[in-house]
Amino acid sequence: MEASRAVARRVDDLVRRCSSGLRGAAFQAEVVRAIHALLPVDAVFLATADPGTLLFTGTFAEDPLVDVADQFVHNEFGHDDVNKFQSLATGARHVATLDTATRGDRHASARYRDIMAPLGLGDELRAAFVTPSGCWGYLCLHRADSPYGFSSADVRLIERLTASLGTGCRLSLAAQGTDEMAAVAPGVVVLHPDPTLAAITGEAERLLADIADYSSSSPRLPAAVYAAASSLQSIDHGTARPDASQTLRVRTKSGGWLLVHGTSLHGTADDQIAVIIEPAHPGSNAPLILSSLGLTGRESEIALRVLRGTSTKAIAAQLHLSAYTVKDHLKSIFDKTGVRSRRDLVAQIMTGV
Questions:
Q1: Which of 58, 215, 272, 320 sits a CA distance of 20 to 30 A from 74?
Q2: Which residues pair with 126 in a beta bridge?
Q3: What is the sign, positive or negative, of the torsion defined by CA atoms of 304, 138, 100, 74?
Q4: Model's pTM, two decimal places?
């Protein structure tokens, strides 16, 4: 009984921390610390996601996952396998284990055979952080290879936390920042198909330096670069989801936004990939910004029309709503975004929130 009360207290504490607006590395560290306190796990992987594309925008991984991060990304986008993060984000169940998905035959998973088993890892528990405003991140928990995996109680525990963890990821993006890189020229990263670095421009190095999971002293590029490249490869190979995109948006440490886009380089010897990184104009990020502020899908639809200067009467006609309903939605939008008028809303979103 005392043990169950201790777990309940730790869950409540994590839920509170998810609503506190922790940014970047501080939020990741808090989540990883809490997970280790709640469950016996041997390695944790945590990622933030762009709810519009469901691609990784940043990652945190514990040993021994760090050195094989590229292989996990390639598996996610380049192979058929169980419990893909994007499938969890769009499916009815947002939490699942490897043992359940393979009915105990772990070798049925290429991810287990090629990556996890050589590392001495066994069952994994994966979760998508789905909220009413979209999926904002993913979690993968690993245990050492043994006949014993994650239990149904473990799954239920993480299920209790996914929406709160999604809120924490969302709030970490919504914090106020500045857009100091708006005048910086786009940068280009060229990757081999494997995907090792072939070349990088100085502009790309400067832009990447403002992404949380990048260090100039490390050979690894940010997860967003690999995600854009791998998503492009899956589209080219015909293995991607129908709504897949090779473009994603990334929040920077200085508070701005970057667009990361993958494109094929035709005519190169080994089908190299160019990943273009450029500062994003606030207008192009409006849907993501509005979602990060907690707006529902309908509220975001109305807010986007407000940003275009559409009148309340016209919004009502376009969305087949009454003017009173639109006004009620506007009141909720203003409350959630902390503004008092249409003009304030436009100023807040278009200056980069």
A1: 215
A2: 96, 140
A3: positive
A4: 0.71
